[in-house]
Design brief:
The protein has a single domain (2-68), classed as Arc Repressor Mutant, subunit A, CATH 1.10.10.1100. It is built from 4 helices and 2 strands. The protein has helices spanning 11-19, 25-32, 42-49, 55-61; strands at residues 2-4, 9-10. The longest helix has 9 residues, at 11-19.
């Protein structure tokens, strides 16, 4: 089934890019242009990706080298 009619991108293609590490609609757009023309498919792409389905987020929390790119912010303790 087509997700993006503007560029002819299917659900399978979106899932393939997600399996390859794309975990946001913006990353999917970078990989295949889906969602960059009329934008009507962005919500469908979000639904296919699901919430919290990004393995990269888990790696950053575990202290991988990617953590240097997106360090967690610590809040000062209340006095």
């Amino acid at each position: 089934m087509f997700v993006c009619n503007c560029f002819g991108i299917t659900e399978e293609q979106v899932k393939k890019h997600a399996d390859g590490g794309a975990c946001t609609p913006r990353q999917i757009a970078s990989a295949c242009k889906a969602g960059t023309d009329c934008g009507s498919c962005v919500r469908r792409i979000q639904a296919l990706l699901g919430r919290g389905a990004c393995p990269t987020r888990d790696l950053v929390k575990e202290g991988s080298p990617a953590a240097a790119l997106a360090p967690e912010t610590e809040l000062p303790e209340a006095a």
